[in-house]
Amino acid sequence: MKLDRQDAALGARIRAAATQALVAAATVPANAVRLRLRGGYTSGRFVTGLSSASVTQSAPESSGDAVLVRVGTNVKYAPFWEFGHFNVFTRKYERVEVWRPGFLDSIPEAQRTFQQVFFAAMGGATTGAPNLDVRPPAPAPPVAYSAAVTVLGWRTPRGH
Amino acid sequence: MATDRSTTLMALIRARLLGFTTRDAVSMSTYLGSGASARLYGIRPPDTVDWSAGVIGIYRLMNRLADGADRGLRETVDVELLLMARPLTQSLAVERAADVADQAMLNWADATQGLVFCRRRQRDMLVPDSAPMDTEVITVRCVYPLVVWPQFLVQYAVAAL
Fold first, then answer.
1. Among the four residues A100, B49, B140, B153, which has the most C-beta atoms within 10 Å?
2. Do B140 and B123 contact (CB within 8 A), yes or no?
3. ipTM of the complex
């Protein structure tokens, strides 16, 4: 019984750490998209900052065994630039992908951020400056890792 | 020659989309035309589109990743298919075309050379509501995640085993 209670406490601690790490990791793709939106979609002459400022991330939410943080926008025209549309001004098909490449490019940094925050939250190796710990870094727990992957909308490595 | 090159993978997907026929004898060609003149374009359509001809399709590969498992021989790649029509009254035709595409791609497998298969799908409708988007163009976006062991990679790996 004592062992069970310890497992439950450890599980709760891992979940709390993973949630904290997830929130931190989600800022990476969000910032990547904000950076890409700074110049607008076309010539940059019509940039108001609305697109960039509209990039938001949700509070952590549970979904089955996973914890989710959603990164998105409520600007209605954003998906049409991302997925393509026929433009009434240029009179042709226009498409400027920002979100997908932003997310893809930020995967390694988001994973590093997740690991650093997770280990710090669990009382292990901490963040920031170069890691002076000579021990090889321990791999992230599978549960936490899959949670991060799910949250950011990426596929799990072996999704089939 | 199914996946002996990336370009033939594109051709294979195009052939599957246009060649598949449902049980009630409906195919994508019904909506997009057939053969080389089919209105199924790679990556982007021409600047001038004849909307009176019906639905157009745009397809491409994206998110191509080799995650390191299976020594890099296994890839995952998404096929994105955009089906569009104008005006909005054509929305039913677009949805029906997407139905056919879903049937063609879901559970599709080709092991002619290499291996490619699909087991999932995603579908959304996009209805623009303001300029600069043409608000009369209806779009259905379909995404089909594929798993691929491309022949151009596998052929050497098998010999090395």
1. B140
2. yes
3. 0.81
CB contacts of B48 in chain A (<8 Å) are 92
Q: Are A72 and A90 in contact (CB under 8 A)?
A: no
Question: Would the pTM of this model clear 0.80, i.e. be above it?
Answer: no
Flag if A160 and B84 touch (Cβ within 8 Å): no
Q: Which residues of A touch B145 (CB under 8 A)?
A: 155, 159
**Average pLDDT rounded to a whole number, residues B114-122:** 91
Please state, as a whole number, how many other Cβ atoms lie within 10 Å of the Cβ of residue A127.
13
Q: Quick check: bond before B132 cis, omega within 30?
A: yes
Backbone φ and ψ for A77, nearest 5 degrees, come out as: -80, -15
> Across residues B4-30, what is the average pLDDT?
89
Non-local (6+) Cβ contacts of A35 within 8 A are: A102
Give the distance from residue A157's alpha carbon to the nearest chain B alpha carbon, in angstroms. 6
Among residues 88-117 of chain A, which lie with CB inside 8 Å of chain B? 88-93, 95, 100, 104
Residues in chain A: 160
The CA distance from B55 to A128, in Å, is 53
Enter the DSSP assignment of B25: S
- Measured between CA atoms, the residue of chain B closest to residue A87 is B133
